[in-house]
Every structure is written in C-alpha cells, then in structure tokens.
Design a protein that fits this description.
Blueprint: H1 11-23, E1 30-33, H2 51-74, E2 81-86, H3 109-133, E3 138-144, H4 158-171, H5 175-187, E4 198-200, E5 203-205, H6 214-228
Parallel strand pairs: 1-2, 2-3, 3-4
Antiparallel strand pairs: 4-5
Helix pairs in contact: 1-2, 2-3, 3-6
Length: 232
Amino acid sequence: VEFSYCDLTSMKSIRQFVQWFRAKNCPLHVLVNNAGVMLVPERKTEDGFEEHFGLNYLGHFLLTNLLLDTLKQSGTHSHHARIITVSSATHYVGKLHLNDLQSRCSYSPHGAYAQSKLALVLFTYQLQHLLTANGSHVTANVVDPGVVNTDLYKHVFWIVKVVKWMTAWLLFKTPEEGASTTIYAAVSPEMEGAGGCYLYNEERTKSADIAYDEELQRRLWTESCKMVGITD
C-alpha cells in the first residue's frame, strides 16, 4: 500500500497528484471515487466552487478525466479497467440546477448535497456512453453504499447526532459493510465488462428517472469541462 496526498477541493492538487501517478508509469485497473462531505455550511473551495459540488463532484470529474488515458491503456478485452463512483440514495431527491450549479441563489446544505450526488450518477452514465462509443476497455459504474456509520454526519443537527448515537448499532452499516458494494463493483467477475449500472447491496437497481436524461447528462458534462478547464 502506498499513500499519496490529493486534495479533491483543489484543482491544482488533483493535477499534481495525476502528474505524480503518471511519473510512476504504473497501470491503473481500478479507480474508486469515494471522497465527500455532507451538509457542510455554505463555503467555497480554493477554486471558488460551492464545496459540495466542488469536492463531491467536480474533483472526481477532473481526476477521472485526467486518468482516463491510463485507464484505457490498462484495460483489455478480457479484463476491463473499472471506474467506481460512490453516490447516495439522496440523489433520488436531488435537482440539478444547470443555471446555478454553485447554489448562489439560495443555499441549502441538503439541496447542495443531493445535487452533487445526482451529478455523480449523471456523470457516470455519460462517461460510460463515451467509453462505449470509443471502444475502450473501461467500465464506469455508480454505487449507493447505504447508510454507513462514519464521520460524514458531523455537520448534521445535534438531535440527529443523538439519534444516530442511539440507533447506529441497529440501523447503520459498519464501514466494512458500507464498502462491500464498492468492492463488489471493483473486483467481482460478475461485473466484468458491465458498465453504466447503479448498484445497491451488490445488485443492479434503478436510479432516479432524471438520471437517465441523456440531454441533461451531455449538458452537465459540457459545463463541467468548462468549469475545470479541460477539453470537452
């Protein structure tokens, strides 16, 4: 195991990390996009993005795109490289505001978080479409880990923290249990060559109807490219 620092709120840090990784000249068979914040107060990343959208979504969008060439070179017909992006059931209630992706008009921690998680699902579907059209031996899938007992809840109201403390042993998954579907997507032979799936409890399931809107997928992709400064 080797650790390298990468700050997903910083486009500069992401580019430095990718430069470091490329210099190692290693193959890349599995990329798991798992960083995230939830219900943070209104604040911006160093690049001026609303933090939920900037960290949860744009950071992963840029990282994945900068590593795509390496992923394509690493995948083969019999062993595809795999991209797994961790979203949330919250995406079902999310709304994508293309004219206000930074939530400047009216900020809601819940709305901003849900939007970032919906964006990850739309991104995954569009990415898989582009990979298929390109004939690449890379698959992209999105995972819902369920409700997991982690520090992600440190910004919720105190009463929610109390309820979580009292019921976590019964209602919440352990981190190990929460990781199981991500691991399944990353290494299971059943997922070989399968892309564009939404996975929950190690099974393919249906995401929100809006996530299948191909026009919305394309528009988000184009806008995201502009925001992070890469070619569409």
